[in-house]
Amino acid sequence: MDAVVVRDLVVDRGRRRVLHGLGFTVPPGQVTGLLGPSGSGKTTLMRAVVGVQVVRSGEVTVLGEPAGSPGLRSRVGYVTQAPSVYADLTVRENVRYFAALHGRGAREADAAVVDVGLADAAHQLVVDLSGGQRGRASLACALVGDPELLVLDEPTVGLDPVLRVELWARFAALASAGTTLVVSSHVMEEAARCDRLLLLRGGDLLADTTPARLRADGRSQDLEEAFLTLVRDSERVAS
Amino acid sequence: MLGIFPFVVMFLVTSIAMLRERTSGTLERLLTTPLSRPALLAGYGAAFGLAAAVQALLTVTVAATVYDLSVAGPLALVVLIAVVGAVLGVALGLLASAFARSEFQAVQFMPVIVLPQFFLCGLLVPREQMDGWLQAVSDVLPLTYAVDALQEVGRSPDPTGTMWLDLAVVAGAAVLALALAAGTLRRRTS
Ligand SMILES: Nc1ncnc2c1ncn2[C@@H]1O[C@H](COP(=O)(O)OP(=O)(O)OP(=O)(O)O)[C@@H](O)[C@H]1O
Ligand SMILES: [Mg+2]
């Protein structure tokens, strides 16, 4: 069964239509990358999947239930684009708090802190962390719930290459253990690390593909180049 | 003043705490966790209610020792009324922020809720001197009853039935506000 099924999803924000009738599925136990330029609707789509976005029409089914159902709250983890942790608590206190909300203990919380490479900063107040560290603290708060579906909005922004590679390796490990991940990014280079790719542009799904297929369709080994070719092709078809 | 001060302070503290919860994105995040909305609000209510109790106790102690506050009735009742007033502040603060769809709205709600109660509670202007319609408004504002209860304690050495009734109204309003807040806090936003 697919982890996420989206059908004809239309979302308006303010007066503008932000998503224009999207449809796709996300297979379980894989890393699905959500890529597209800034403002293309990645965050809005993720919000719809976790059930905090008012949708105009369409259906979003997550793990067999309508998105946002009470039963899903312990099964879905969401990391917002802006780190959402308490600035006046330490990293460890933050993670322990979210652990408690998911019925997990201090041991799991401390393990999650280690997982995101913040063991040395565990006793630091979040307000005193660097941007990248803050993002990882936010990530740890979602990992600790050990959800079946993890929705991560640009989790690697502001991280150095070493940390970025480590996190992507961690995502791959989670996926092979059965967790479904939906990860957004606007760095095409990261697309190579995904099993599946959803390319968004201006609120439309430009392609539902894989890195290999994108390289072939875009006639380039460079994913960024291939994406741009796809954009140009679609514009030619449109006009 | 003892009735109003804890109320206003706790209302502001609660509103600001919830506002921070909103701006930091943690509110949205909390709403995606298994935490239920009544539990979230009850937790806030309990934590701030406790802070409110301490604050009311301090205010009354200072008023009684430093400023020689003298009332006909027992001081413990003054504390009790101040605490209930403060809890009302917490509950209304939670309700106002639950209603708010944005940070901007949340900030706007603060004066809208506090000021009318402040002016019409019967402390600045005695209720008997108010226009009929202002008195009617004053009648439905819960803070009025906290002030009335305190005046009762000030007048009579023993707790009166009116005072208990006043107190019950304030406590009832606080519970109602919390329940409403749980009902209006939206998980989904646009
Ligand atoms: N609260 C809002 N009210 C009105 N419009 C909004 C709101 N939030 C986002 N939008 C609009 O919706 C569109 C999609 O925004 P979204 O945040 O989903 O993009 P994104 O792909 O996540 O971009 P980024 O890569 O910059 O995070 C944008 O055009 C944006 O201006
Ligand atoms: Mg975004």
How is this structure best described in words?
Chain A is α/β, with parallel strands linked by helices. Chain A has helices at 42-50, 91-101, 106-115, 131-143, 161-176, 211-217, 223-238, and strands spanning 4-13, 16-26, 31-35, 57-62, 65-66, 76-79, 149-152, 180-185, 196-201, 204-209. In chain A, strands 6-7-8-3-9-10 form a six-stranded mixed beta sheet, sandwiched between helices. A four-stranded antiparallel beta sheet of chain A has the order 2-1-4-5, covered by helices on one side. The longest helix of chain A has 16 residues, at 161-176. The termini of chain A are far apart. Chain B is an all-alpha fold. Chain B has one domain. Helix content of chain B is 76%, strand content 0%. Chain B has helices at residues 4-23, 26-30, 37-65, 75-99, 103-120, 132-140, 142-155, 161-184. The longest helix of chain B is centred in the first third of the chain and has 29 residues, at 37-65. Chain B is globular, with a radius of gyration of 17 Å. The mean pLDDT of chain B is 82. Chains A and B meet through loops of A and helix 2 of B. The complex binds adenosine-5'-triphosphate (ATP) and magnesium ion (MG). Adenosine-5'-triphosphate binds at residues 13-14, 16, 18, 36, 38-44, 81, 186 of chain A.
